[in-house]
Write a structure and sequence with these properties.
Helix content of chain A: over 70%
Mean pLDDT of chain A: 83
Distance between the termini of chain A: 50 Å
Oligomer: heterodimer
Number of helices of chain B: 8
Radius of gyration of chain B: 21 Å
CATH class of the domain at 1-79 in chain A: Mainly Alpha
CATH architecture of the domain at 1-79 in chain A: Up-down Bundle
Largest sheet of chain A: none
CATH topology of the domain at 1-79 in chain A: Four Helix Bundle (Hemerythrin (Met), subunit A)
Strand content of chain B: under 5%
Distance between the termini of chain B: 7 Å
CATH superfamily of the domain at 1-79 in chain A: NADH-ubiquinone/plastoquinone oxidoreductase chain 6, subunit NuoJ
Helix content of chain B: 55-70%
Mean pLDDT of chain B: 74
């Protein structure tokens, strides 16, 4: 039953991804990407990874779509037509090759929940058995992220903040170029009309 | 450009009603990370969505009064600073970097200290993610750092009116901005009626 649901979700995923690539309207593409993230988070929940599922739903289906919509509203809503149709004769074989490589690599992966999997044999057993008495935290994932591997979390937080500051540094220059609001708006309208 | 009062009243009212619940859910996600799915990242994102939604739908002076533009960098940096302080505190107590259990508090077990350390770290991560997301949204939209001061001059005049009057008044602004690629006149309307 659950596996049938998985198959359906994967099919919906593929359809959403392809649609997001095909549609001309970028707002529709963003909606498709959001739906894609939503179904990915459902799949994560299906393999009992509720923490990852929640983050995927919040980040992928929530704020990423919001930021992309903001970017569309700030620029243009329609994607450019394909530059050169011959390009697909290069891209398609590359995509097929990559797909074959990934499928080949997937055959070597351990089964889901395999106790002999390499990831289960290292320190993770210690974390799982001792996290409750070490940190009094029932959710192992939280104690992993914020205690045992908090240095990773520190790095991730730094990365997110650095990304935001980099975006600010790149985009905020637009404000410095002109001090008069009217001139700036006119420039923007002309730019929008030209596209 | 697209910031400002959304033409549909249904959208405005629904988003205004939803925002407090979004913020509460974000706080819940952060605080409940010990016992269920969640934590700083997801909770911070929920908080950020609660701050961004008013900027998309509500009149500017209301959205920026509740969540000012300086909130993003300040809260983000503050969260990061809090994380670094918590990370460095055990070193003062003689432990390793990020080893909260090394801090000795009288009457509190080491495991409890680690529990509290996790809580503080989750809050710090939530604040940092919130600030980062709000900052990214603000710079994408090209918002002024203090929109309340420069905006009322040339462009924000129409937006200083209260929401019921400002709603229909600025109705063509978002719609025109949305379709500015197809209809340049509409885009020009948006540049005058829009808050910036």
């Amino acid at each position: 039953m659950i596996e049938a649901l998985d198959v359906v979700l994967f099919l919906v995923l593929i359809v959403a991804a392809v649609l997001a690539l095909i549609v001309r309207d970028l707002l529709t593409a963003v909606a498709m990407l959001t739906a894609y993230s939503l179904f990915v988070s459902l799949l994560f929940a299906g393999v009992s990874a509720v923490d990852v599922s929640l983050v995927e739903a919040a980040l992928g289906a929530g704020i990423t779509g919001l930021l992309l919509i903001a970017a569309i509203l700030a620029t243009t809503r329609h994607s450019d037509p394909h530059p050169d149709p011959r390009r697909r004769w290069v891209v398609l074989p590359l995509v097929g090759l990559f797909l074959a490589l990934m499928l080949y690599a997937a055959t070597g992966l351990p089964d889901r929940g395999d106790p002999e999997a390499p990831a289960q044999l290292g320190v993770s057993q210690v974390y799982i058995t001792r996290s409750l008495e070490d940190t009094e935290t029932p959710n192992v994932v939280t104690s992993l992220l914020a205690d045992y591997r908090s240095q990773d979390t520190l790095g991730e937080t730094l990365v997110i903040l650095t990304a935001a500051l980099s975006a600010a540094m790149v985009l905020v220059r637009r404000r410095d170029q002109d001090d008069h609001g009217e001139h700036r708006s006119q420039d923007h309208t002309e730019g929008g009309g030209a596209r | 450009m697209m910031l400002g009062s959304y033409p549909s009243m249904v959208v405005r009212v629904v988003s205004a009603v939803l925002v407090p619940f979004m913020l509460m859910f974000g706080v819940y996600i952060i605080a409940h990370g010990h016992y269920g799915p969640g934590g700083g990242f997801a909770g911070g994102v929920f908080l950020a969505v609660g701050a961004i939604l008013p900027r998309l739908t509500l009149p500017q002076e209301i959205a920026y009064r509740v969540f000012p533009a300086w909130l993003g960098p300040l809260v983000g940096g503050g969260g990061m600073l809090l994380f670094l302080l918590v990370a460095a505190a055990p070193m003062v107590a003689g432990g390793a970097f990020l080893d909260y259990g090394a801090i000795e508090v009288a009457g509190v077990e080491a495991s409890r200290v680690r529990y509290l350390g996790i809580l503080i770290v989750e809050v710090a991560v939530g604040l940092a993610v919130f600030g980062a997301m709000v900052l990214i949204f603000d710079v994408i939209n090209g918002t002024e750092p203090h929109p309340s001061e420069p905006a009322p001059g040339p462009a924000g005049g129409s937006d200083t009116t209260p929401a019921p009057a400002g709603g229909p008044d600025s109705t063509p602004a978002p719609a025109g901005g949305c379709d500015s690629t197809q209809r340049p006149p509409g885009g020009a309307g948006s540049s005058q009626g829009g808050p910036r």
